[in-house]
Amino acid sequence: MLQKRSIPGICSEAISISMSALIYNMKQPGIAVVNKEKLLALDGLRGWMALWVWVTHVVTMATLPLVKTHGIGMVLANGQYAVCVFILLSGFVISNSATTHSWGDFIIRRAFRLFPAYLICLAISVAIVGLSIELIEATPWPMMRIDDRLKYLHDSLEHFWPHLGLHVLLLHGLVPDSVLSSTSYAFMGQAWSLTLEWQYYLIAGLLMKLSFKSKHLGFELAVLIVLLMMAKVFTQPSFIASYLWLFYIGHLFWKHFDQHELWRYPVYFVISLAMGPKALAILLFGLIVYSSFHDGRLKHFFENRVSLFLGKISYGFYCVHMISIFLTGYVLIVVLKLDSRVLYAVLLISLSLVFSLVLSALLNRTVEQPMIRYARKITASKPR
Predict the structure, then answer these.
(1) pLDDT tens per residue, range 32-41
(2) CB 378 within 8 A of CB 107
(3) For residue 319, what are the contacts with CB-CB under 8 A and spacing of at least 6?
(4) Mean pLDDT of 315-337
(5) How far apart are CA 339 and CA 344, in angstroms?
(6) DSSP H helical segments within 169-216, as ranges?
(7) How many Cβ atoms are within 10 Å of 234's Cβ, its own excluded?
(8) Which of UniProt's keywords are assigned here (predicted)?
(9) What is the DSSP annotation of 302-363?
(10) Dist. CA 355–CA 118, nearest whole Å
């Protein structure tokens, strides 16, 4: 269905929905004000996006013939939309912390949120690089994107120490691929977006100061256009300039989270169509935010118990899911020597999901939550 709808058609529909919402809001002066710092639906959304990323990875490792640029593969084998939603979420939820705490306290809190679970998963990913290569080479059926995976795994070993040093600091996205091959995906492929997050945290305060110089739409669009132009020039996905425009839009959604300023959202969306299908993430994110205003069905779905559980463990799930996929696949192919493609696909998908859920819940309970509490304890209790 996705490929049959034109971008202009989607754009037109989005504008129509948003304008109708604006008219409705203007007719409802007594509508309740929603606390933008406590939108539970965004937690649920984060959980489902993490699950979407897992789907895109597991179906290709299960040797399902899905192409990320065609048909159903545009959804099931293409995680770029989910990652774009993650970026919008970060731009939105980080804005409050970045504007109410000192830069030092903000960085400490974000570091304790990001690094502990990540470093554990990085260490395991490094330890199983050889195993991962053996699994891919031993898989007897054609696998989509097999050459890409083998390349970044072999490059991880060939340039081991430079890759490891940069990954430990989460700064690998700052190094061009032309300088260090597979810099974005070495060891732990999904960590390309984590270095992106860390780079954003380091400069978020400056972006906030620039943003609050003016609330005028023309100023915001001028900044957005500059960021879009930067993204066209700097195309390495793990480098902040390639996605800073999307972080900025997430921040603008937070900045104008007011029932009388929702009309700005479709304007940001239309301008961002210059980036192609990635802009569709803005539409999805905007619909969730809009639903949160009016107690809509989307809000209730993303606030149900399953969604909130997925949201709670989403970061650990994102970090650990490839480890689960590789280890499960290794046992099935190399140890048990399964020769049924269908059975392999069914077992890999089902078992790796359970494995990922269990490990991420364990990470959340024993690592993430204690580190979050500790960071709050050592940073200033009073906002600046």
Answers:
(1) 445 666 789 9
(2) no
(3) 117, 118, 120, 121, 188, 190, 191, 194, 360, 363
(4) 98
(5) 8
(6) 192-211
(7) 15
(8) Acyltransferase, Hydrolase, Membrane, Transferase, Transmembrane, Transmembrane helix
(9) HTSHHHHHHHHTHHHHHHHHHHHHHHHHHIIIIIS----HHHHHHHHHHHHHHHHHHHHHHH
(10) 17
